[in-house]
Design goal:
Residues 1-22 form the signal peptide. Residues 29-87 form the Chemokine interleukin-8-like domain. The chain is of the alpha+beta class. The chain has helices spanning 2-20, 22-25, 77-93; strands at 48-53, 62-67, 72-76. 43% of the residues lie in helices and 18% in strands. A three-stranded antiparallel sheet has the order 1-2-3. A hairpin with an 8-residue loop joins strand 1 (48-53) and strand 2. The longest helix is centred in the N-terminal third of the chain and has 19 residues, at 2-20. The radius of gyration is 21 Å and the shape is elongated. The termini are far apart.
Length: 94
Amino acid sequence: MKISSLALLSLLLAALWTGSQGVSFRSSYSACCYKDMFIRQKIPALLIKSYQETPSHCSHKAVRMELRNGKKFCMDQDWFQKYQRQKESTRTST
């Protein structure tokens, strides 16, 4: 009885620990951009809801973007730098 209670308690503690550490079990490569995720179209700046640069371990340096309609895709960093310059110039001109 004591052994089964101890085993059950151990399993419960392990489940609680993995639940709290769940983020660490996810692949950090899910934040990377791959060839089929890129689009080449120019996106109007006002449609962009949020963006995030890919981590340094990713093979493609890019920016992951989310549009206001919820769609997500990747853009190369050159385009994104132009976008940021455009956004800054509209801020300073107003």
